[in-house]
């Protein structure tokens, strides 16, 4: 798993980094105040910064916060049965599910992780007759000798019965914006105007907007949900901090920052 974002500096604006910075600055401020002979009352802003940052970091690390954060985006595109989707000119499958590990002999083992649900959901939509063409986006794995995700998923789709003429791969992309532009080139080659965009439910609002701005009529097809909808319930275990929960909060923050940055 690649833990370093492509735009590494974006990690500096994530809740985890900002709150850790708040704790560090607060401690440094407390030390400075102590050396300057200030009383605890005079140093209360520094103490408050440490306490507030610590409490917020705890809250951001709970499954309860992670669930709420994901819901703020997933509520925009609730689950939908593929049979109820309108017929479109093409189905666009966004990348993000391909991973690779290098074997001792130098060969690569390719596999999918949780966001591989995008592929399965899109295949189901194709089999339901929702569009005659599929276009696969994505980037690379960072492991030498591996194909782009679009090329790999195209081959996987063919193996599942999609005709080669109906499965297209876009070029290698680093960002969602680049991916949309490369996918748009393939869509225009086929004269597609209306598309079904399949991606993770958290990522879909931002991704779909890129295609709308490129002039396409977009029907969102969400996959890989981070919440369980109406099945969600309360448990005290939701208040036990977990690293995965903080990572999810950071991921949602990235989506919101991306939406704000793109206007």
Quick structural summary:
This protein has eight helices and seven strands, in the order H-H-H-E-E-E-H-E-H-E-H-E-H-E-H. With 263 residues, it is of the alpha/beta class. The strands form two sheets. A five-stranded parallel sheet has the order 5-4-1-6-7, with helices on both faces. A two-stranded antiparallel ribbon has the order 2-3.
Overview of the molecule:
With 263 residues, this protein is α/β, with parallel strands linked by helices. It folds into 2 domains: 8-74 and 236-261, no CATH class; 82-223, HUPs (Rossmann fold), CATH 3.40.50.620. It has 8 helices and 7 strands; from the N terminus they run H-H-H-E-E-E-H-E-H-E-H-E-H-E-H. The chain has helices at 15-35, 44-60, 63-74, 117-127, 149-159, 176-189, 204-213, 243-261; strands spanning 90-93, 98-102, 108-112, 134-136, 167-169, 194-200, 217-223. The strands form 2 sheets. The protein has a 5-stranded parallel sheet, sandwiched between helices. A two-stranded antiparallel ribbon has the order 2-3. Helix 5 links the parallel strand 4 (134-136) and strand 5. The radius of gyration is 22 Å and the shape is elongated. The two termini are 30 Å apart. The model has no long low-confidence stretch (mean pLDDT 92).
